[in-house]
Amino acid sequence: MLFHTVRIYLLVIFFTFTLLTNAGASLAEVSIQKTSPETTQLRPLLDATTIPAEKVNKFVQAYLQVWQLISSREGELQAAETELQSLRIAQEIETEAFAIIEKAGLTNQEYLQLLGLANIDPEFGERVATQLQEAKD
Questions:
Q1: How far is CA 121 from CA 16, 20, 66, 69, 112, in A?
Q2: Which of 17, 22, 73, 107 is 20 to 30 A distant from 116 in Cα terms?
Q3: Residue 78: per-residue pLDDT
Q4: Where are the beta strands (DSSP E) in 1-137?
Q5: Which of 97, 114, 125 shows the shortest CA–CA distance to 29?
Q6: Per residue in 32-43, pLDDT tens?
Q7: Distance between CA atoms of 104 and 87, rounded to whole angstroms?
């Protein structure tokens, strides 16, 4: 149940962050492997079993701060009266989010890869969910 709840939050932040950063291309962090002419397999570029606990901890801390940032500015973004104003606010949020991620010791690409992996790999997702729960308690 914990994993399911946190996974929903991860999906929300995943798509919110994608919309805010227009980073759709970098979010597709999968490699396409042709196993035969008829089949194509998608697999994550990261191996969840080899990600050190320290990196997961950095990700969790950055995730919580980015989530808080987006949550705190969501009303402002929705209240924007023009598309230009909305774009300006989204760019501010993006800049702040990237600063948070870098301050946590991750690159933007690492953060997005870990975020994507947490959504597609049940074991890694559970690992992240557990740390998120511990960080909130």
A1: 20, 24, 21, 26, 14
A2: 73
A3: 86
A4: 30-36, 39-44
A5: 114
A6: 344 444 444 444
A7: 26
